[in-house]
Amino acid sequence: QVQLVESGGGLAQAGGSLRLSCVGSGRTFSNYSMGWFRQAPGKEREFVSAITWSGHATYYADSVKGRFTISRDNAKNTGYLQMNSLKPEDTAVYHCAAAATQNMAVLTSPYRYDNWGQGTQVTVSS
Questions:
Q1: How confident is the model at residue 104, as a pLDDT?
Q2: Which residues does residue 6 pair with via DSSP β-bridges, in sequence order?
């Protein structure tokens, strides 16, 4: 298992930016693909973005494409989600997760992830 801790959430105005971080510990973080999901009150957990263990492949939900950028630094056991041009509908708790697969076709599903962080709140005001 790999333990994950998110940070970087907070309050931003519409059009602003936030950068989320996800630090992994325990098993070798670089052996896992990483995903970001978000969950707004009363809604199901939603896929945001994923990156393979090497960082060579990334994928984004249509709702964030062109605004969010996922990256990772395996030397620091850390993944990132740079969020620009934020919108009020981006308000949610953001979770990072780790999966032992590089198959991007399945990394959009939360059920493929065995390791989850506690989440960090992102609130975007209009």
A1: 87
A2: 22
